[in-house]
Specification:
62% helix, Non-ribosomal Peptide Synthetase Peptidyl Carrier Protein, Chain A, mainly alpha, 7 helices
C-alpha cells in the first residue's frame, strides 16, 4: 500500500516538474507582445478570423492554451517551437508535428508534406492554406 502511494506521488511529481519545465522553455514565446499586428501586416487580405482559425489548429496540435494564440508570429519556425519543447533529439514526443500536418490537410485540403522543410514558418504554412482556399 505504501509503495503504491509513493509511486503515485512520484509520478504526480514528475508530471508537475515536466509541466514547469515546459512552461520555462516556452517563456521566449509567452513573454512576447501580441503578434496580431505582424499577421495583419504580412497577410493584409486575410481576415482576423482566418488567422485565428489557422493559429488555433497550431495551438491544438501542440496542446497550447487558446490565450497563447497571438504569441506566435508568421516568421516563427515550426521546428524551432518543436525543438524548444524537445531539445534532445530522439526524445519521445506527443506527435505534435504529425497532428499539425493532419489537421491542416483535413481542414484546408492542402498537401503539407510535399513542401515541408526544416525552416518552414507559420507564415509559410498559412500561405499554403490561403493559396489552396483561393483555388
Amino acid at each position: 500500500m505504501i509503495r503504491s502511494i509513493v509511486l503515485i506521488c512520484l509520478v504526480f511529481g514528475a508530471l508537475i516538474l515536466a509541466e514547469v519545465l515546459r512552461r520555462k522553455q516556452m517563456i521566449r514565446y509567452w513573454q512576447r507582445a501580441c503578434a496580431g499586428r505582424l499577421w495583419r501586416r504580412r497577410f493584409p487580405l486575410a481576415s482576423k478570423t482566418e488567422i485565428r482559425e489557422f493559429l488555433d489548429i497550431f495551438l491544438t496540435a501542440f496542446a497550447f492554451e487558446d490565450k497563447r494564440r497571438l504569441c506566435f508570429a508568421p516568421d516563427d519556425r515550426v521546428m524551432d517551437v518543436y525543438r524548444t519543447l524537445y531539445p534532445i533529439r530522439g526524445t519521445p514526443d506527443s506527435m505534435e508535428l504529425e497532428d499539425l500536418i493532419t489537421r491542416l490537410q483535413k481542414r484546408y485540403g492542402v498537401e503539407i508534406l510535399a513542401s515541408w522543410r526544416e525552416d518552414i514558418t507559420l507564415g509559410d504554412l498559412f500561405t499554403q492554406t490561403r493559396q489552396h482556399a483561393a483555388s
